Amino acid sequence: MKRGGQIASPESLLSTFFHEYGHTNYLVEHHDKEDEVASETEAIRFSLQALENEGYPNLAYREAESVKGMAGATPYKEAVANLKSDPLWQSILGRPTKSRGPQEVS
Ligand SMILES: [Zn+2]
After folding, report:
1. Which of 3, 4, 24, 59 is the least buried, fewest Cβ under 10 Å from its Cβ?
2. CB neighbours of 2 closer than 8 A, spacing ≥ 6?
3. pLDDT per position as a tens digit, 33-79
C-alpha cells in the first residue's frame, strides 16, 4: 500500500508492515496463481487481525477507514467488497472508538 511521499508516522509504519506481511503470506501460499484482488484482500485482513492481536484496536479502525477511502479503485474496490461480509471487518468498523469520526459504516 502506498502512503504517498510523506514521512510515515510510527502508527502508519506498523499498519504498513502488517499489510506487507499479509501480502508476503499470500505470495508464499499462492506463488503459482497470484491474484491481485485476493492478495489485497488477504493483506488488509491480515493487517487488521494483527493490529487487533497486538492491542491496537484504534489503529485497526483507522486502517479499515483508510482502506475504505481507497475503495474507488482496483484492487481496493474489490477487496472492500470481499471484506464486507467478513466478521472481523464488520466488528472493527462497527465498534465505537476514540478515533471514530462521524461517518457512517457502510
Ligand atoms: Zn496492498
Report:
1. 4
2. none
3. 889 999 999 999 999 999 999 999 999 999 999 999 999 999 999 99
Residue 25, amino acid: N
pTM as predicted: 0.82
- Rounded Cα–Cα distance for residues 96 and 58 (Å): 9
Distance 11 CA to ligand 1 centre (A): 17
Domain membership of residue 40 (yes or no) is: yes
* Ligand 1 mean position, distance from CA 1 (Å): 4
Distance in Å, CA 46 to ligand 1 centroid? 11
Domain count, the chain: 1
Give, as residue ranges, everything with CB less than 5 Å from ion ligand 1.
Answer: 1, 40, 43
> What is the distance between the alpha carbons of residues 4 and 1, in angstroms, rounded to a whole number?
9
Q: Is residue 106 part of a domain?
A: no
Q: Range of 88's domain?
A: 10-93
Give domain status of residue 15, yes or no: yes
Centroid of ligand 1 to alpha carbon of 55 (angstroms): 22
